[in-house]
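As a representative case, we now present a protein record of this kind.
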Amino acid sequence: MFKHALDRTDTAYLSLFTSNDAAALFRLIDRNREHLGAWLRIPDMTLTEEDSAGFIERTRLRYAQEEGYWLGIWFRGELAGSIGYCDIDIGNRKAEIGYWLGQEYEGNGLITKAVKVLIQHAFEQLGLNKVEIGVATGNQRSRAIPEKLGFQREGELRDYEFLNGRFLHRVMYGLRADEWKSSDSQRD
């Protein structure tokens, strides 16, 4: 099972969701509905604790099939957010990373550290050549992560998603294995 510390004190770590995490996942999404809903459909898809349990079951199945999966981001014993491979395309040797964090946990470097773990895993354990991140153009906090980690802006998809009565454009970022190995970002 996937579990990885994000710091030396073990106050922050990633782990594959278990069925026991459904209540914590639902509560986190429920109290961050407005915050998350500005950029993501997650709150609209999570109306009950059973919705969270179903999500966890699906992500564990995708993990077993090596298709992509989501992990919990834990901070000081509490579920703080989630990160995962939205898709793993073994044939084309690439994966897309997605992430979100409860507003009360922002500013602790959790997403940056977690993205680094998934990048390293993609290149070293999965043998992939490229990692991609897609972010709504107006979501400056999320865009700062790939920009800080040396991803290249590869383009913008106009009217990518219709959310809350408006179309969101999406910026696509990419990072190749050779760029990561030669960068200082992986060593921070």
About this structure: The chain has a mean pLDDT of 94. The chain has seven helices and eight strands. The first strand starts at residue 3 and ends at 5. The beta strands are 3-5, 12-16, 69-75, 78-89, 94-101, 130-136, 152-163, 166-176.
